[in-house]
Amino acid sequence: MALTGVLRPGHIALRVLEMGPALNHYVDVLGLIETARDDDGKRVFLKAWDEHDHHSVVLREADEAGMDYFGWKVDSNATLKKMAADIEDSGLCEDLQWIPSGEHPGTGERFRFTIPTGHVMELYAEKVILGNGCGTDGPNINPDPWPEGLKGIAPSRFDHALLYGDDLDGTVKLFTEVLGFSISERVVTKDNPDFMIGTFLTCSNKAHDVAFIRQPVKGKLHHASFELGSWEKVLRAGDILSRKRVKIDMGPTRHGITRGETIYFFDPSGNRNEVFGGGYIFYPDKPVITWYDETLGPAIFYHDRQLNDAFLSVFT
Amino acid sequence: MALTGVLRPGHIALRVLEMGPALNHYVDVLGLIETARDDDGKRVFLKAWDEHDHHSVVLREADEAGMDYFGWKVDSNATLKKMAADIEDSGLCEDLQWIPSGEHPGTGERFRFTIPTGHVMELYAEKVILGNGCGTDGPNINPDPWPEGLKGIAPSRFDHALLYGDDLDGTVKLFTEVLGFSISERVVTKDNPDFMIGTFLTCSNKAHDVAFIRQPVKGKLHHASFELGSWEKVLRAGDILSRKRVKIDMGPTRHGITRGETIYFFDPSGNRNEVFGGGYIFYPDKPVITWYDETLGPAIFYHDRQLNDAFLSVFT
Amino acid sequence: MALTGVLRPGHIALRVLEMGPALNHYVDVLGLIETARDDDGKRVFLKAWDEHDHHSVVLREADEAGMDYFGWKVDSNATLKKMAADIEDSGLCEDLQWIPSGEHPGTGERFRFTIPTGHVMELYAEKVILGNGCGTDGPNINPDPWPEGLKGIAPSRFDHALLYGDDLDGTVKLFTEVLGFSISERVVTKDNPDFMIGTFLTCSNKAHDVAFIRQPVKGKLHHASFELGSWEKVLRAGDILSRKRVKIDMGPTRHGITRGETIYFFDPSGNRNEVFGGGYIFYPDKPVITWYDETLGPAIFYHDRQLNDAFLSVFT
Amino acid sequence: MALTGVLRPGHIALRVLEMGPALNHYVDVLGLIETARDDDGKRVFLKAWDEHDHHSVVLREADEAGMDYFGWKVDSNATLKKMAADIEDSGLCEDLQWIPSGEHPGTGERFRFTIPTGHVMELYAEKVILGNGCGTDGPNINPDPWPEGLKGIAPSRFDHALLYGDDLDGTVKLFTEVLGFSISERVVTKDNPDFMIGTFLTCSNKAHDVAFIRQPVKGKLHHASFELGSWEKVLRAGDILSRKRVKIDMGPTRHGITRGETIYFFDPSGNRNEVFGGGYIFYPDKPVITWYDETLGPAIFYHDRQLNDAFLSVFT
Prior knowledge:
Oligomer: homotetramer
Radius of gyration of chain A: 19 Å
CATH class of the largest domain in chain A: Alpha Beta
Number of strands of chain A: 17
Shape of chain A: globular
CATH superfamily of the largest domain in chain A: 2,3-Dihydroxybiphenyl 1,2-Dioxygenase, domain 1
Largest interface: C-D, 57 and 57 residues
Largest sheet of chain A: 9 strands, mixed
Structural class of chain A: alpha/beta
Strand content of chain A: 25-35%
Number of helices of chain A: 6
CATH architecture of the largest domain in chain A: Roll
Helix content of chain A: 10-25%
């Protein structure tokens, strides 16, 4: 099979300070769909409309915002077992554990581990399929291109996250050598091209499935990103965010890295979100794109050619 | 590695009746870039701007339009050898042969075979990288999102082809069981869902890399398709085609299958081209989409909900 | 004042065969807003979201589809009186009459007359303002760019109509010499440029406010058109129409005349509608654009460069 | 005639520090077309592609950037004479003078005057028509929707300017009472809605043809604006500006006032330019939109909901 191993970002678990405002944000403004919540209401599970799996976002009420963990869907239980063993063998990760099936609703056993940059990651092979609501004569039969009744910004899927952490080399080694990812783009110091400041990693034809920027922190989230499909939808997203008084951090603009057309904003707890369109089709034989540290400005915000203050200082 | 085996459509070799008008079409109107031609001028090699490899379209002057062959880039020479053996073992293909390195400029050895629907296919592992012209401080360094000096419609890449042939079952068996493709969408008779009228196959996250429709012919080309990136570029393509008096077959419109935003037109020899944007992200665990024969109209042309006369009758 | 006299198309009164399906079409699919209906339910009044006036579409149940009349908003009662007198003096019109204030809800006195092509036209100076629902601190105060809760295609306004009739010369004389319109574009026979086949007329900076095509009929409607704002909204309109099984006549495509980006479709009674975006800014000193009869194809449908069968034969 | 009096912004005369870099900016990056220059090369005349008149931008080399004057096309010489007399009678303006025909190439006599905010304005009735290059069988005959060979950002026309000055009340009185303009939008202090901070004025169906913001200066230019036609073209403009290292001031974003989709940037002399799309259709009976001073942020930059530092402090 041409697409094997780690298939995609499967879920991101975010900590929010209050569930009520968080749901208002993620459901009414961003336009995700609630699919389940824990009996005690402490966790709520959500999906974007064009995702078939049960959920891709997990919200948990906590005292501090940030990312609890990031889950990757793998192609099979055999891959799950093998990768768990490979991760253990690599010696790169800590706190390895198996989360039993059902701990997430509709989800099989998950293998959890902490990567060198301090982020908690998971692999899993099974999640119940709910569908995307487009079939007209049954699920996946004669579908319309998009469903009726979408709310808010309505991205098609959870797409990737940008994460901040210290041991970038260890994490990149893990993703490329153990988990089978490719580097699509990297930011390096011009004097020492082996010293990566940022690395954009993909397990697919997407320009990135996860990205890391070297910062002297552990396990931090820069943003969780959702796919929109067009630049006009980015404009519409900006309009909706302004109307709803959601704080926009940057954009609409274009990224130099990935060419994405983007807008950044914050959830009520301070977690940064992105919705974006565009980008290119990646292949593993595509040359890696290199950005020098001196061009980090246009690499991130291509139009302004400089970072805003929040880019390096605000994360959760 | 997450993307393995057959990576992508690597080249399509088209027969054209006269090279001069063909080049006017493919270079000045469509906007491909000539990268080489044979000493005798009988074959011209072209690429789209965002392709890094040496060429993706081969034009050959001949008495009859159509497709000579379709080439697939695989991830390594080892895969090339293994797949060649697997194809031979499958007994599904005819006229197996190795084309020596260099027969295409900048291209390694190719394994050629004729599939059950009569189309000549090739696998190859090596092609010289020319780059996409976007780097500002060297190839792939600090790139702009698109290069200056593009002409005409300027698609980013050769994306897929739709092919007509008789033994659809044999060809689908080959692609799914030997070459590792997935079925993303299929058109079936409602009474017998196992009888496929059309099959859309992917080896990637794209909604299709090649598609076949069952017709009582051998080795025919319905269209060769190039990727544009946005619906506004489809409008611009239509404007350019009209200005240049290129015959438009259908569109701008949306496909039901793949959700693509599309326009069909003909090269001067009668080969149908498509430029398109949009579509969804495919994963191998995504449920197959099924269209019934009675909804073939909206499956192909979602807005009109019916085929035009040319769809089933005009091919090369 | 820079904009004087006839300001804009103010309302179009359409005959529909059954009110229920008509309202489903104009409210749920097209996305107009019902603002009033007659006590007996025989007429329903609608507006588009960005129109401030009380209504712009009047639906009346009748045995035959078509246009009852077309109303123009003029800048003042003084203009209304003067133009009524001028029309009478011109001798070009028939069936002159005053419709009393209130016959349309919220509307002042209307002057009605039948023009040489057989269409019933009206002038009026007063209509109650309902607003566009965008103000955040009161009507027209600190407005958002668009209101929440829009349904369906949701055009911004009723924009123009294309009408079929026989005495084109008389009607053009009326509009240009009596009502102060300019000709923006015209289709003529190449041999005799004074013989107009079609005339596009404007009283504003819009490329057209009404258009006429010479046909051996009286008082016929080709289409009533609504403004959308972008080509992406035209795609979305096509998607909605297909989903709702509304018969699309043509498009998405571009008009040569006016450069509009368009889609044509039919209401359940057979009245043709258009939604469109684009076009240029007209000024009265802009040279008239001339199309020859031999280029009527690209003049109407720029991409296909030919009329479809319905263009000349289907009207109401 | 429905459009009378002042028809449109006809030209803006800008001072630039060096003509070479200025032409590189206005011709190669912005994409205007040079149509004439003075014998001594001190002034260069330019037009945008879809303008029919001889020129709309005049560049003059000077020691200081800024606007020399802003010219308005009126509908006739009779209007020119009458408005000149009305302006004189109003007592609102200074430095009234007639500029002889031919002082601008291809342009008739101009009446020049200085308005209360210190800006030099002109009225003129005649300018040679060069056309927009779209006709296929002669000027304005069977035109394509856009010409080939455009360079850079390629806006369709010079659209409006935003000007800074002190005596806003006098200038607004002049434009509304003498020149026939309407107020489309205004920014006022919430406590005293009669105290206008900013006024957007139109003589057409456009949301604005000129705008003024009250600042304790005389005759200053905030930006000269050019019309693009779509949000996707705003993105492309941003890409071109970044590639060419043109300093972007703000955007892409949306204005609250006029709903325009915009990007601001600077020419090499520090004059701010805008290219934009979108906006609504204005009519003189449309209610005036009011913004309170406390919402000046979203009024100007709807997404960010706050001004950037440069908005109030950087002008020429």
